[in-house]
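Progress narrative, Year 2. Work on PEP-CTERM sorting domain-containing protein from Massilia horti advanced from sequence curation to structure prediction during this period.
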Amino acid sequence: MKKTIILETLVLAAVLAASPAKATPLPLQGAKITATYNGSAAGMLGFDSGYSGGPGSNITGLDPSDISVEFLTSDFLFGFDFAEDGMLTVYNNDTIPFGSYSIVFDFGSSLSQAITSFTLADRNAIGGMPALSLINSHAIGLDLSNVTWRGDYVTFSARISTSAPTSIPEPGSIALVLAGVAGVAASRRQRTRRG
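Result:
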């Protein structure tokens, strides 16, 4: 019985040490973002271009003051604000008519790590469900066609994350734990023989 408990403890320790990676916010400092709206580069207006159309107006970096949104759609229905901690806030800038609203954000090679997840963080001000997709390791997609907005100028947010390894104990730490478990087992064995 005692051997079984000790073995179960060792197996649990091994499982915990080999647990899968956890998602952590992806830092976006220094990111350059290229965006399209319903498949069109001309459909997005970026912060760096002063939200005016023209070649390259769909490419921007993060607003260093974090006051303005990084992108507006050319029909001014939506605003997109990226935070340095990987949070994306989507604003409805007006009453949204029924239609197709598909957005892609591509970070190219400007990220320090690959994107591994894109998940909804807060949707209290909307009905329906935005379709979030991870296109590849540096691009995400949004489809807002099924979203109903509970008022004008409301938001929802989503988190861009990367996998970060969980804290794995150093081999010396594992050896110390195993030595402690072996010491407890030996101590119990001696007590059993005496008693």
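Residues 1-21 have pLDDT under 50 and may be disordered. The chain has two domains: 2-19+170-194, 22-164.
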